[in-house]
Design goal:
The complex is a heterodimer of chains A (614) and B (94).
Chain A (H helix, E strand, L loop, with lengths): L13 E6 L4 E6 L2 H7 L2 H12 L13 E4 L14 E7 L4 E7 L3 H7 L4 E5 L6 E6 L3 E5 L8 H11 L6 E4 L2 H4 L7 E3 L3 E3 L4 H7 L2 E7 L9 H17 L1 H9 L5 H6 L16 H4 L1 H7 E5 L11 E5 L8 E3 L3 H6 L9 H14 L3 H16 L18 H12 L5 H4 L3 H8 L1 H6 L18 H8 L32 H19 L11 H12 L5 H21 L11 H4 L16 H12 L9 H6 L4
Parallel strand pairs in A: 1-6, 7-12
Antiparallel strand pairs in A: 1-2, 3-4, 3-6, 4-5, 7-8, 9-10, 9-12, 10-11, 13-14, 14-15
Helix pairs in contact in A: 1-2, 2-22, 7-21, 13-15, 14-17, 19-20, 20-22, 20-24
Chain B lengths: L1 E7 L3 H4 L8 E7 L3 E2 H6 L2 H10 L2 H4 L2 E5 L2 E2 L7 E2 L4 E6 L5
Parallel strand pairs in B: 1-7
Antiparallel strand pairs in B: 1-2, 3-6, 4-5, 4-7
Chain lengths: 614, 94
Amino acid sequence: MLNIPKNYGGYKGKLLRVDLTDSEITEEEISPEKMEKFVGGVGLGSSILREEIEDEVDAFAPENRLIFFTGPFAGTKVPGSGTYSVVTKGPLTEMFGGAQANGWFGARMKFAGYDGIVFHGKASELSYVLVTDEDVQIKTDPELAGKDTYETQEYLKEKLAMPKSSVACIGPAGENEVRFANIASDGGHFASTNGIGAVMGSKNLKAVVVAGDEGVPVANEERFDELAKEWQKEVNETLMGATVSQYGTNGFFSAAAETGWLPVKNLTTDIFEKHPEFNGDSLREKLDLDRTPCHACPLEHCNEVQLKEGRHEGLKTDEPEYEGMAAFGPLIGNDDYTEAIYLNDLNDRLGMDLKEMGFTLSLILECVENGVLDEEDLDGLDLDWGDIDGVEKLMKNIAHREGVGDMLAEGVYRTAKNFGEDALDKAVYTHEGIAPHIHDPRGLWGYLFGQTISNMGSIEGFSPAELVPQPDLGMDEPVEKYKDPYELVEAQGEMAKKYYFVDNLGTCFFTSVDLSLMTEALEALTGMEYSKEEALKQGHRTMTSSRLLNISQGWSKEEDKASERLLEPCPDGPNEGVSIREDIDEMVDYHYRRMGWDEKGHPKKETLKELGLD
Amino acid sequence: MGRVKVKVYQPLASEMGREKSGPLEFQVDLHGEMSIEQVLSLHEVGEGLLSLLKTSEWSDNIMIALEGEINYDGLSAKVSAGEEIQFFPLYGGG
């Protein structure tokens, strides 16, 4: 193992434990060995989850844990260092759920004095937890019931007179245990994947408020300042940074549409003519903008926007990211950008994951078009592609589990299963039981493969290897599409190791830079020795530890499969006729071999020993 | 003899002087098959684009597509009359 100095930086070394059943609050030290091994975020959080939950525990049982974790960089000068992770056993996959949100919450949790918070048990009444550098309290407030995510944040900040706090909260969907409810913080930032907000709701925990003034210790301040400046400069200088800063993630909307991976009408087509109106350059010209940057972020890509036209003129909301505009635009057959912004805002307020929502809605709309479902199945709603009023009604019914919304609140896989084989063939999901990110991944196999083998519900490797070169991984060029599936597996596997490591750091994906710079900065911050090789090993460790956690919850190889729709050839556009069907099983087997797992996908003994997980 | 259409998306378009939203578009006449680099060098705006693409800031962060197909041969890829060349900012994921 590595050398751990006495005056290590980056961490507070403290874990807060909140037992909501008995209203007990305790503090524990986090051992330096554990920090070194799992770093933070998803890594440290999942290691605690794996130690503490019983095999095959019910995601909604009080015994399940809901764990908030920062990383060593949270609250420091490196760009985008307000990020935090939430881990739990997620109710969609009934396995490991891990998600990140950017903003300020992660930094403020550190300023309050904690690296992580573990919630367990279930409060007898709807509660919130206030965490500051002076005190920790569990409080109840009946006024919180039914408030949406924006209202909850504003209400608590005002009530507590704490404008410089961050509030992580659930909306009505979380209170009603919608299986894909999420957690909002700092306005419209969401930790979203795998129903972590539903777990929060099952604990009767409406919100967590964090604030404080404690600084973050730095082992080598002079060197760390230099590297943080270099990091800021590097983020600013890339075109990716320039695009995100000037146009948000919608700056890539036309690229997705023109190259055939924009999801349109539940993947029944890849053609969407109205994409220029959804692209970031056009959008930002048509909206009033007010920048709302995350902690220490030079990109400042986050904005509050106001609609200047359409039937929702005057609506103020956080600017939707690309996935929100795609989910509530082309995916559901809507070509009016103002309506997409309106539905995205509604979804955010109700507190639901837009991936699961988008693919559930698009499934229903396709089933109606094809006569698989009719008005009787849908509480009298006569739906069609782009029917905003009908979709709005469905979304509200889902959040409140009313009528057919009670079934749709179970997510795309369970909904399709309930409606029968015809619906199941059309549904977009992986066999873990979760919807993928808002793309048509059939034309970008890195996305589809990364989603299929996912341990925590999101894409392993984050980006598709066919698009993004990774010079720090020895990949100066992207992997050519469809040419060599094995090369793609190798690239996506190495990217998965890298981004598991990045997920542990407490920084935003969009501000991540070359691994060598990040590990150098980590060394200067913590005083612990790190190298690029150790970072990749650490990522492999987190991935394998996540796999062990899933196995303990009943995972089998059958889960590493994609739904029938995802195996069908692309219907049109530049990727017409392309299908991963013939290659995917071999790709999964090859990934297992590369990761040191056996043919069933279980880590081998020697792999566990090598990674220190034995 | 035919024409190739070139579309340069933002923010690269604004670097080349386009002040409005939307891509910068121009067309180039060509005979037979030519490389993208040759096509661009036949047009004043294309020459400006070539200079930008040769800076490291842009060369590492641009995605080139031909008729929507992601192109892995960069500026040496061959194009024919009637085709469209597109220049996009590189998408990082999410």
